[in-house]
User: What shape does this take?
Amino acid sequence: MKILVPVKQVATLDEEFELQEDELDVDHDFCEYDINEWDDYSLEEALQIKEANEGQEVEVIALTVGDDDAEDALRTCMAKGADRAVRIWDDAMEGADPMAIARAIAKFVEQEKPDLVFAGVQSSDQAFAQTGMQVAALLGWPHAAVVNNLDYTPGAGTATVRRELEGGLEEEVEVQVPAVMTIQLGINDPRYASLKGIKQAKSRPIDEYSPADLGLSEDEMGASGSLSQVRKVYVPEKGQAEMIEGTPAEQAARLAEIIKEFKGAAS
Amino acid sequence: MSGILVVAEHRQGELSDSVPELVGLANGLKEGLGGPLMVAVIAQDPSAFSDQVNLAGVDEIVQVPVSVAEFQPDVWEAALQKLVAEKGASVVMTPHSVDGWGYAPTLAAANGYGFASDVLETKVDGGEVVAVRPGYGEKVHMEVGFPGKDAVVLTVRSGEHPVVEESGSAEVTTAEAPDVTPRSEHKRFIEPESGGGVDLSQEEFIMSIGRGISDEENVEQFSELAEEIGAALGCSRPIADNGWLPKAHQVGQSGTTASNCKFYLALGISGSVQHQAGMKHVDSIVAVNTDPEAPIFSVAKYGVVADIFDIAEELRPHFE
Ligand SMILES: Cc1cc2nc3c(=O)[nH]c(=O)nc-3n(C[C@H](O)[C@H](O)[C@H](O)COP(=O)(O)OP(=O)(O)OC[C@H]3O[C@@H](n4cnc5c(N)ncnc54)[C@H](O)[C@@H]3O)c2cc1C
Assistant: This one.
């Protein structure tokens, strides 16, 4: 069987940053990139299924939709044990919202026919919480969002999962397979890549496709394949705390005062 | 098309708190957009919720009886798709909740509706809906539009809008749900484990630690500090996920809401929306973080930009 793990290279903004001139995005010079935290867990879940079923040939494929820079995320996945890495890109994808990304992923799924797709619940930069589910919708596949426990035996027609709901409540659900699931933090304990793995991953090939290779038409890519369009990006006015300045000793002294005031008033 | 359809989520027989808030937001949108405001109740016995969702501004309550007792994404998606078509709704509003994530993106994707998630604000510009959502870890906001889309699905962040408390005089109608075979099945709910004596919902003074403590071996000293200053010990999610503290200490959306808390000290916590869900209502929040741009400072009353280890060390002598 095959498990496809779509991963995303996410951006963290520097403390000081600027917007692009057209005000449609931040200036990417002020971004640092790393693999999305949620994707560590979805990859780990796939690797654990593979390792628990050694006789069964479970193939784990990591995929990203992104430009060259996004290869780092794929190398990380290979270093941890992904069997294959795939990158889909074309400059026409520029301006894509999650739906346009989902279209490319879904096309790859149609070609590769994995049994399971594990996407992260959300990404740490934009927190859309939609890409995985939209892949499911495009494929017409069963799906489960926010999975924090998974029980699946390769070949089985259903998986038993737990969805993490609000307030610590969970729900047990039986889902027909093939399925798309979005994987939640805490479902497992993601491994670190070994030094040896990192070294080996450097020289391994990454399969590259343009969305057109996969059968996506121009008007399904980028902005025209999107469900939304950014009109403007701005820095919001935020409520701002009263800042306690000084040396740590001075800050702590003021903090102690505030705590004591509160406790005095409370008692 | 016109009209707004608010989805009334519910679980275990209880209506979600999001409904009066969504109705509040939808009332504002209705002014600019025109058309009726409808609330869809998809449930085994939708009439059980009719009184509760009959809020000021709601024109129609659409009861959609279905065979499943609890949320099932295929059933909800199919029912909503049919309602949008039949009622001609141009906006569907759902909470940005765990269940919302399971049907709202698929509803939009399957039908080519516009879509935005984690929506903070909505407005109408030139007759079209515009939504505001956060980006880059809450550091910017983005205004998004939906050119060429007849219908738009929005998942709306909770706790941002005034709730409608006044009851209304909506017409109650019934709509038939399409006959779909659900491809997943709800088996049971699993209640959170009891906290071994920890119940943060009862505590007035909580000191919480986040990923800023870096290492499991540092938990001990902060746990001692909490005791010295007389606070209950809370934490953000990574601390519980790593098994450094039991889950009962976790504050937030998937943890405990600090309902009775009056003073919340957040150490090394960035203040993600899911953490804020459990604490931002607290009157006095004090945050210590090395990052002056951390979102926690936008809900805190007092902020300290500093290393939590330095502050902890300097704080101790004041409580000996
Ligand atoms: C469905 C769902 C439910 C969730 N439920 C919850 C929940 O209930 N509760 C919850 O907390 N999260 C929850 N999360 C996770 C949430 O999105 C964040 O990942 C999490 O809250 C981050 O925790 P943190 O602030 O401790 O870590 P980070 O975001 O990593 O922040 C650590 C902070 O510490 C600061 N720092 C680092 N070192 C120091 C130092 N030495 N001194 C001072 N500051 C320092 C950093 O500047 C940073 O701001 C949920 C997520 C999802 C998707």
Summary: Chain A has six helices and 13 strands. Chain A has a mean pLDDT of 96.
